[in-house]
Design a protein that fits this description.
Layout: H1 2-5, H2 43-56, H3 81-86, H4 91-103, E1 110-112, E2 116-120, E3 127-132, H5 143-152, H6 155-161, H7 169-175, H8 180-187, H9 195-219, H10 224-227, H11 246-261, H12 291-305, H13 310-331, E4 336-342, H14 344-347, E5 366-374, H15 382-394
Parallel strand pairs: 3-4
Antiparallel strand pairs: 1-2, 2-3, 4-5
Helix pairs in contact: 2-7, 4-9, 7-12, 9-11, 9-15, 11-12, 11-13
């Protein structure tokens, strides 16, 4: 954990413009907590990492090890003119440059309530994530009333999750403003060893806020505590709407990208990367990835805290995987990416956790069609491709 504790100094990148959020999500998009993870200055982060370890590890087979990756660490492509100039900018301005290039990969959202919300890539404007909205029985009930009634039907899951508040308190508290410390513990993230990776992940967190907030505003779904006084959340609920969960969007996008950065097989040849591969059991001696278990726990903790319904997390997870999968394929030079559709009817009776995330079966929460959307390479900036190559090199695990 000494690598995590070495991350000192760059506080204040909370949200897209550095504004500190009082509570909830607004402060989470910087790396405030990762500066102190495992260090003597923040025992609560260490306690949260300890309970997370106990929650996601399940079975530790010591005969297995992390994936070995063969990404080049020497003779990398020469710096493009853009990247050479980029490195001379201050961090604040580098963030804005990355944000511009990242935003350019996506078309404007289709906010079409009461039917659906659609996230599209910017090339042919093809859908990579479709979020169908719950439908009323008579077609005349206002869609926000229909959506809130749909969410209220999951209050029993919020009630049962409250029993976990004591054991997950530290996680819930820290994850209000920091999720990357938890991914850092899994993937040895460090400001000195993995600066390009962290730069990319920071940008993904900022993009998550950018893309999810218009959806929340459009749908204006109530939070659990607005529906029942018995919820009594243990943190201050954010003032913005509930559906979809921003924590879920961002955690699953980060988990997807980190998985691809550390997996050779996921990026082999011209085959399109699929986030589904992060759920698969690899052949021995490679150990199972814990990234999706961690993403699911971060999202689930928001229901435990009393600020989200399980459906919020399902909706966010689908969006996060779609974003992450598209970024992986676009930045690595892939020709196609997958499309996701939330199965809104199916998830109404589902609690959210790692074991209920699935892509097959009659009650699956997601429909995923791998490699079904063409990636337009002309919209991908050379700068982002350069950053991706260097992030891959950082994540290389040599033989040991």
């Amino acid at each position: 954990m000494t690598g995590l504790s070495a991350l000192n100094g760059r506080n204040g990148r909370n949200g897209r413009n550095g504004r500190n959020g009082r509570n909830g999500r607004n402060g989470r998009n910087g790396r405030d907590g990762i500066f102190f993870a495992g260090g003597e200055t923040d025992g609560q982060v260490s306690a949260a990492l300890m309970s997370t370890f106990e929650g996601i590890t399940r079975q530790w087979d010591v005969t297995r090890h992390r994936p070995r990756t063969a990404a080049a660490t020497a003779n990398l492509p020469a710096l493009s003119p853009d990247l050479a100039a980029f490195e001379r900018h201050e961090a604040f301005f580098r963030n804005h440059i990355i944000d511009y290039n990242l935003d350019h990969l996506f078309a404007p959202l289709v906010l079409n309530a009461p039917a659906h919300v659609v996230l599209r890539e910017s090339g042919a404007c093809a859908a990579i994530y479709t979020l169908p909205l719950p439908q009323g029985t008579n077609g005349t009930t206002p869609f926000r009333e229909v959506l809130n009634t749909y969410l209220q039907g999951q209050m029993r899951f919020v009630k049962s999750a409250a029993a976990l508040r004591d054991e997950r308190f530290d996680e819930i508290h820290v994850q209000q403003t920091d999720t990357l410390s938890f991914f850092g513990a899994l993937m040895s993230l460090d400001d000195n060893r993995t600066p390009w990776t962290l730069m990319l992940l920071d940008a993904i967190l900022r993009f998550g806020t950018y893309i999810e907030m218009p959806v929340k505003l459009h749908l204006t779904a109530a939070r659990p505590n607005e529906m029942s006084g018995f919820v009594q959340p243990i943190i201050q609920p954010p003032s913005h709407a509930s559906f979809p969960s921003g924590h879920s969007v961002e955690a699953f996008a980060v988990a997807t990208v980190l998985h691809a950065l550390s997996e050779d097989a996921a990026l082999a040849g011209s085959t399109a990367y699929s986030a589904q591969s992060a759920f698969a059991t690899p052949a021995a001696p490679t150990e199972n990835s814990l990234l999706m278990r961690l993403a699911a726990r971060i999202a689930e903790n928001r229901t435990v805290a009393g600020v989200h319904f399980p459906a919020d997390s399902f909706a966010g997870a689908g969006m996060g995987m779609a974003i992450g999968e598209y970024l992986v394929n676009a930045l690595s030079g892939g020709s196609h990416t997958g499309a996701y559709t939330l199965q809104t009817t199916n998830i109404a009776a589902l609690d959210f956790n790692y074991d209920t995330i699935g892509f097959t079966g009659a009650d699956k929460p997601f429909n995923h069609t791998p490699a079904s959307v063409a990636v337009d390479g002309t919209v991908v900036s050379p700068l982002l491709k350069d950053i991706w190559v260097r992030a891959r090199a950082e994540m290389r695990i040599a033989d040991f």
